[in-house]
Amino acid sequence: MPYFDMHSHMLCGVDDGAKTPEEMFSMLEMAYEDGTRALCLTPHYSPYLFGDTYEKSLRAFEQLQRYVAEKHPDMRLFLGHELGYHHGCLEALENGSCRTLAGSRYVLVDFPEGVDFFEIQAAMDRLMGAGYTPILAHTERYRSLFKRIDWIEEFMDRGGVVQMNASSVQGSWGLAVKRQWKKLFRLGLVHILSTDGHNLTTRPPKMSACAEYLKKHCSPEGIRMLTWENACRVMRNERI
User: Fold this and answer.
1) N or C: lower Cβ tally within 10 Å for the chain?
2) Is residue 141 within 8 Å of 120, Cβ to Cβ?
3) In a domain, 123, yes or no
4) CATH code (residue 152)
């Protein structure tokens, strides 16, 4: 069963992900060997941290496309941004400087781990009110949501999308996050699993990090939805 990794910082020289073309290509090879056959590259859009990443990410994406065309023609690549939510980001989405995922109305949205619940709630309302479908990146990591299961359910009922990181189930972000990952999974409050890969060591692009857990607790059809089909629907701008 192939994987679709919809959240990745593989593009080199853009943000806190891959630093060089060599690291970018090595990450691609690691993902391919792990079973990934589709990738959405999502460098951070956070002007206060990384500046304007539009052109740099496009150049790195084109470089990776050329590499994939030669080495792995069965690998599909898509481009987007991970929006670090901030004042003025709606204007950036409207003028195109912040990319949606593959040109869809889906927006991958990130917050600091210590973000207040009401800031997340207000941001999701603003994005939905503007006609976008927010995908809440690594939902399991926001401590302000640990006791807000009711809001996560409501968010999903309204069409919002929950993404979680494959490696969190192994405790890569601590025991509390691991417990939240498993809780959301057991309650069916997750649409998409991705790697959020940043490098070859501490945050590798390996979807298989959660494979054993999925095999024990999910049907093959459910696994395919979480690791392939729902991400494909995002790329096609279809409702999940």
Assistant:
1) N
2) no
3) yes
4) 3.20.20.140
- Taking 90 as the threshold, does the pLDDT of residue 61 lie above it? yes
> Which structural domain, as residue segments, surrounds residue 117?
3-235
* pLDDT one-digit tens code per residue, 159-190: 999 999 999 999 999 999 999 999 999 999 99
**Does residue 240 form part of some domain?**
no
Q: What is the pLDDT of residue 49?
A: 87
Identify whether 90 is part of a domain: yes
In terms of C-beta density within 10 A (0-12 exposed, 13-18 middle, 19 or more buried), how is residue 224 classed?
middle
Q: How many domains does the chain have?
A: 1
